[in-house]
Amino acid sequence: MLNRMHDALRLRTNPAIFFSSAAVIIIFVLGTIFFTDQLDAGVSVASDWLLTNLGWFYILGVTAFLVFLIYIAASRYGRAKLGPDDEAPEHSNGAWFAMLFAAGIGSILMFWGVAEPVSHFGDPPRASSGIEAGTAAAAVDAMNFTYYHFTLHTWTIFTLPALCFAYFIHKRNLPPRVSSIFQPILGEGIHGPIGKTIDVVAIIGTVFGIAVSIGLGTLQINGGLAQVIGIPENALWQLIIIGVVCGLATISVSLGLDKGIKVLSNLNIVMAVLLLIFIVVFGPTLFMAKGIFESFGTYIQQLPELALWNDTFANTGWQNTWTVFYWAWTITWSPFVGIFIARISRGRTIRQFVIGVLAVPAGFSVLWFGIFGYASFDIEMNKDGGLVDRVVDQGDIPGALFAFLDHYPLSGPISVIAIVLVIIFFVTSVDSAALVVDTMNNGHEDFNPLPQRIFWAAAVAVVTAALLVFSGSGGLEALQSTIILVGLPFFIIAYFQIYALMRALREDAGELPAVKMRKWKKVLPPEEVERRDDGEDAFAHEYDDDEEVVTTPEAAEPAPKFRDPYVSVDGQSKKKRHGTLSSRTGSSSAESYRPSSSE
Fold first, then answer.
1. How far apart are CA 592 and CA 62, in angstroms?
2. Residue 41: predicted pLDDT
């Protein structure tokens, strides 16, 4: 029945994965609208239980993933290529770094750039340890936690699945699906019920994760418009904003990658850098420069403690509403960011990949949050203040950026530019998410029928509206409660990803210094191979018909055999020039060396 429905709708995807994912999303949206109180109560109870009993698990998980990434980059596997062994990187370092910047951090920077440092400055996370609000000590601690939340640990959550995707997509030529990462464990089962279940969970989580991002952006846009032109902050305007953002994303999806996402991504990067330069020029430049260096040093010094801090004795619940929410939210849309990063990283070594993906975006985040953070502290400590009252006392986190810009010249026009920048960031998020989610459904990247991509853009919109407007609690609280639940299976899956990657590396790696790797044939989902074998395939012109594809993961050639550098091809031990016999027996050539007649 699903196949008949799939063909009737002229789709090009996996029917089981597509319709299962769509059904869960539709059921959630309808349940939120028609059973608001019951669903809200259930989500609140479940999320409260998780926060109380498993918050430490989320915190430990991200730190464990960071330790693994450092280990894998430093190990001999760090020399392994993400692609054929002799292939050069697909993109130059400059282009790669620029694309990494655009890989999902824009929305985070705009929403939390002012809100995070000011929140911790006015309400210190470790107040129970004697840190008083509004003091220099509070400012230092605020930057420590801001860097903890938005540099290495956040990008660890993106880097782990991205590395796994890059290896299994580029090295083993498997489909761009989360289930492909589990091929060393499941084998051909990646196309079976377990594999499909993994993909459905990943797709649903990605949609919810992007929806939370769009929800935060909607609150920020609404707050900015309220300040600039005086529109009310209510559900009606939030629905209008969601409709406009997702409508623009649909247009961008229709235009395609080069005319849509690429143009918007370049535009928002330029605008973000210009906004940053504006703050540097008109803000306390020297104070910010000194503060960034100092706070980065204290962050590095405090990192081991921050990475494992669980607020055990004071038990204020602060970690639950901040760190745990961040990690759960970030990991739900990590497959989306991960596939994007994997696609642009072909030809790099694992070591280059890990260092680049962790260091480059994290470094820019240090600059961004340092500039906005210290400029905010200057307003509070040396000028007329008001940010702590707005953000902490009134709880207006979405309006933090615009309250901050009020202290700068041309605040009106600059606030309008900031609103436009937020809109563009979220349009590109929805646009690229629709493409990636559709790719995970299809199991290949050759082509994506437009109606499928439009469906996923619409799905993000309706889930955002359901969470933000129709849920019982509404606003940021609803976004936090829901995403904490959705994030749990992703943390569990991440540990299996680590095991699968290590197992694949051990299977494919040789023992020679160059780390020669086994080559793999390109794998496509069975239904896609069947379609391509069909003589009436309308999309046959879109792909390379000469390329050999398989449905079962299959090596194109065996792994390189281990060869002892001191043993010759015929198995005899080689002798060094001056009579040292180096073999595994350790015998001395003083006894076995025989000069030739010429000597």
1. 57
2. 81
